[in-house]
Amino acid sequence: MEKIVDIMESIAHEKGLDKENVKEVIIKSLYNTAKRVYGSEYEYDVSINTKTKDLELFQKVIVVKDDDERADGENENHMILSKAKEIDPGIEVGDELTYKLPLDNLGRTASAVLQKELEFHIQRLLEDKIFEKYQKMVGSIVSGSVVRVDFDENTYIEIDEVRAILPRKNRIKGEVFKVGNVIKSVIRKVFIDAHKGMIVELSRTTPKFLEKLLELEVPEIKDKNVIIHNVARIPGERAKVSLSSLHPNIDPVGATVGTRGVRITAVSRELKNENIDCIEYSSIPEIYITKALSPAIISNVKIEGKKAIVTLPSDQKSKAIGKSGINIRLASMLTGYEIELVERVGDTTAKTGSEKEKVMDINALKSLFGD
């Protein structure tokens, strides 16, 4: 066990681990080995002598009278006074005696136990390090090769030192992957399973994936000159993204869409041709909701708590709702408001009959606050 400090530093450097963590593992491994070899009934202490760089093992016992029954047998935590005085002549009854156990003659069995203990705890340190690394990466986009697709159509992807899983439910409808395909996805969550160990779960359906793809494709977003406020998706069908610019000379929507739509088209292709609407964010709920319901032309919006009553011409209602209700659902998801549509008939507003409502005029708001 000589120069254990050098061995500790070597392990830490080779495995990329913290030196103090490796030190704790070595001490814990020797402690557990002593318990198994010398007896679990005894108390032990392990320390590293920084001067000699040796690992030292000590056993602790309580000194009792020579006729004390607690000192009978081999596996007790007590030592009779006469025997204790052979080690320390000044010892008294009731004192705790700590004496060094030799490590040179541990024997093959003890050495094998210690080696297994060390391997086990070092492996746990490595697993903890990887777990912490990927926990910090939750929400980040990653790329990897497909190595397996199981009978439940879950896709397993090799990413650096881990094999992550893309469950079928987190895959865009209609997507089919084969072994060898390189695919992008976002890390949805990282957790420990009692039977399978660490699980890195990926997703291609979360709004975060669209957000990260835009960040990769649009330099203005990556450089924080254009801010993504909200993202709403119905994966593989349609999405809405609200944006704002920190620079007066940068059009957030234009920068994101790109010249002739080249940027947004590249993102759409990655999402199995998902239709992506980009709108400019507004801190004024009425204007924000109006833009979110695009391409429908909205007359008025009235906010009641978290509900928005939207008045619009009859011929715009189908556009506001969208195919299978997709447009109004996305607008609601994007803005966080429950949206109720009310058709305007002539000079009055028809709401489930002939009830009249006074609502805030969007055009007046725009003239006051701008777009």
Characterise the protein shown here.
The protein has 371 residues and is of the alpha+beta class. The protein folds into 4 domains: 4-134, NusA, N-terminal domain (N Utilization Substance Protein A, Chain:P, domain 4, 2-Layer Sandwich), CATH 3.30.1480.10; 146-203, OB fold (Dihydrolipoamide Acetyltransferase, E2P) (Beta Barrel); 206-281, GMP Synthetase, Chain A, domain 3, CATH 3.30.300.20; 286-371, K homology (KH) domain (GMP Synthetase, Chain A, domain 3, 2-Layer Sandwich). Helices cover 35% and strands 30% of the residues. It has 12 helices and 17 strands. A 5-stranded antiparallel β-sheet has the order 7-6-5-8-9, with helices on one face. A hairpin with a 2-residue loop joins strand 15 (338-345) and strand 16 (348-350). Helix 1 (4-15) packs across helix 2 (19-38), helix 5 (207-217) crosses helix 8 (262-270) and helix 9 (285-292) runs antiparallel to helix 11. The model is unreliable at 347-360 and 364-369 (pLDDT under 50).
